[in-house]
Structure formats: C-alpha cells, structure tokens
Design goal:
Strand content: under 5%
Largest sheet: none
Radius of gyration: 20 Å
Number of helices: 8
Structural class: mainly alpha
Distance between the termini: 42 Å
Number of strands: 0
Shape: flat
Helix content: over 70%
C-alpha cells in the first residue's frame, strides 16, 4: 500500500506540477493567476490538514464521498504538485533569455528550442530538488494512517496494539522505509549525473 501510494502520488503530482509550472509561466493571466493561487494554497496547507479535510469535510460540503486510498493519493498528489511546479518554474526561468533568443536567430523552432536548449540545461537544475521532494513524499505517505489507510505505519500501529512491542515494530518500519527510499535516491542521482548532449 505504501508503494501504491508513492507510485500514483509521484506520477499524478509530477504531471499536475508540470502543467501548473507552464500555466504560471504563461503570459495569459487566465492561466497564470489561478496557477499561482493553486500553488500557494497547496504548498502552504499542511498535508495532514488537507487529508482530514478531503476525507471528512468534503463529503459534508459537497456530498461527494471518496474512499480512504483515493483520498490519500489525491492529497499527496496535490501537495506534491505545488512544490513540483515551483521546482520546474525555477529551473526553466534560470536559463538565460539570451539563449532562447539566439536559438530563434539560428532558425530553431519553439519546440526545438525547448527540446534542445531549455530542457537539457533545466533538467540538471531540476533533478536535485525534485529528488528531495520525492523522498519527502514517500515519508509523507505515513500520514495516510490518519484516515485509516492500511499503509506501513498504520499496519505497524495495528501490530503494536496486538503484541505491545513498539520498539521492534518501529525499527522494522524504519528499515522498510529505507529499503524503499535508498533505491529511488540512487536512481535519481544517476539521472542527476547523466550528461545531457544537445543534438
């Protein structure tokens, strides 16, 4: 369940974050301002509060009831998307405008400029903070236990209530989290060290 929450949250959160970053960078105010408001809300709102509100308050106000697992995925994705948006925005804006202007002067299309000039350089700047955010999201899946999602921490707490051995159980939980996080960190570092060549 922890892996499921992690996988879907990272996928949906990243996709939504990239779209928000593009909207925030847009010159169209109808795209830019809603994106800014969305990012400010979901980067400022604690995930625990968001999960509780989605699971308990949303059905009261809207009549829409969502089960615990989808609620956890939605909450984690919304939380992650705001941070991903800011990471991508900062990475793209860090590329000097002169490079874009030069690529246009050389006859490259907008798509070619993005593909060959902006993305290769921005990726090296984006991956380190994105890696940290992904690892943080894995750890935040433990908050899903507050809405009774049977993820790692929740299962551990149930086990403690039966065998009364908290030290051993929490130690095993910590080891399992490390088993999940370390390979992901290794993969992301490989991407970080990869040399991007402009063709």
């Amino acid at each position: 369940m922890t892996l499921e929450l992690t996988f879907f949250s990272l996928i949906f959160g990243t996709i939504l974050g990239v779209l928000l970053a593009l909207c925030k960078l847009s010159k169209n105010s109808l795209l830019r301002y809603p994106a800014i408001i969305f990012i400010e809300i979901f980067t400022g709102l604690p995930l625990l509060v968001l999960l509780v509100w989605l699971f308990y308050a949303l059905p009261i106000f809207t009549g829409i009831t969502i089960s615990a697992v989808p609620t956890a995925i939605i909450g984690l994705s919304l939380n992650l998307s705001g941070f991903v948006a800011e990471i991508f925005r900062a990475g793209i804006q860090s590329i000097p405008k002169g490079q874009t202007e030069s690529s246009v002067a050389l006859g490259l299309s907008k798509f070619q400029t993005i593909k060959r000039i902006i993305i290769p350089q921005a990726t090296k700047l984006i991956i380190p903070p994105l890696s940290g955010r992904y690892v943080e999201t894995i750890k935040l899946t433990s908050l899903a236990s507050i809405i009774a999602v049977d993820e790692l921490l929740h299962s551990g707490q149930n086990l403690i209530s039966v065998n009364f051995r908290p030290l051993e159980v929490y130690t095993v939980i910590a080891i399992v989290y490390l088993i999940i996080i370390i390979p992901l960190t290794f993969i992301l570092r490989k991407f970080e060290k990869k040399k991007y060549v402009i063709n």
